[in-house]
């Protein structure tokens, strides 16, 4: 397992060690001991989520507020996405920084997004199955978000605007300047 730091403090790209043979492949998609040793983070994951998206689907930018904040370990089981993290932690050295990374079932990369960051992704392949672990339970009342095209962050979502598919909820998300606290 290889861990690479990103420009967001506490946000990592993780490449599992893959064993290939004539049957196919095997890898540890999460190993708590190695994860803690190599990242220094100690999340206690309590919920696993999975979503399927078609090309152009953009989910984000999401977070949960206050005591309901979630760290996430995300990966792609099928297809390809560009994953995005935005550091919204007041006082963080990397406050306001954006990390984007291509995750796919081919490269098998994972991203670890610490609590206090907004998260989103865009689906680049015809279909993508996205899977992630969270260290806090879903809480509808604590849901927060920022509109994907907020000029503060200027994220390049790679696809043309007319290709994007967002939920009604995500289209109504506020600008960063008007959002509630993380
Ligand atoms: C996130 C979530 C949603 N739901 C329900 C609420 C809703 O009816 C339905 C779909 O929810 P959403 O539209 O919010 O799903 P989605 O837009 O995929 O939300 C996810 O986006 C990515 C980028 C994240 O980072 C996640 O934390 C989560 O916010 O599923 C749960 O029951 N549990 C959960 O943990």
Automatic annotation (TrEMBL):
One MF term in the entry's GO annotations: dTDP-4-dehydrorhamnose 3,5-epimerase activity
One GO term (biological process): polysaccharide biosynthetic process
The reaction(s) this protein catalyses: dTDP-4-dehydro-6-deoxy-alpha-D-glucose = dTDP-4-dehydro-beta-L-rhamnose
Biological or metabolic pathway of the protein: Carbohydrate biosynthesis; dTDP-L-rhamnose biosynthesis
EC number: 5.1.3.13
Enzyme class (EC, first level): isomerase
Description of how the protein assembles with itself and partners: Homodimer.
Name under which the protein is recorded: dTDP-4-dehydrorhamnose 3,5-epimerase
Organism: Aureicoccus marinus
């Amino acid at each position: 397992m290889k861990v690479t730091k990103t420009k967001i403090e506490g946000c990592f790209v993780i490449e599992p060690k893959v064993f290939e043979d004539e049957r196919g492949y095997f890898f540890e998609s999460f190993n708590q001991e190695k994860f803690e040793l190599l990242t220094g983070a100690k999340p206690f994951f309590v919920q696993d989520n999975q979503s399927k998206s078609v090309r152009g689907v953009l989910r984000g930018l999401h977070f949960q507020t206050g005591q309901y904040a979630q760290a996430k370990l995300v990966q792609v089981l099928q297809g390809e996405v560009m994953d995005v993290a935005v550091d919204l932690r007041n006082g963080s050295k990397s406050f306001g920084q954006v990390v984007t990374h291509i995750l796919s079932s081919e490269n098998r990369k994972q991203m670890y997004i610490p609590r206090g960051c907004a998260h989103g992704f865009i689906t680049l392949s015809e279909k993508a199955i996205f899977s992630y672990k969270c260290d806090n339970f879903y809480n509808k009342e604590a849901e927060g978000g920022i509109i994907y095209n907020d000029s503060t962050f200027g994220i390049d979502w790679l696809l043309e605007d007319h290709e994007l598919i967002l939920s009604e909820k995500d289209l109504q998300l506020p600008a960063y300047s008007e959002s509630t606290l993380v």
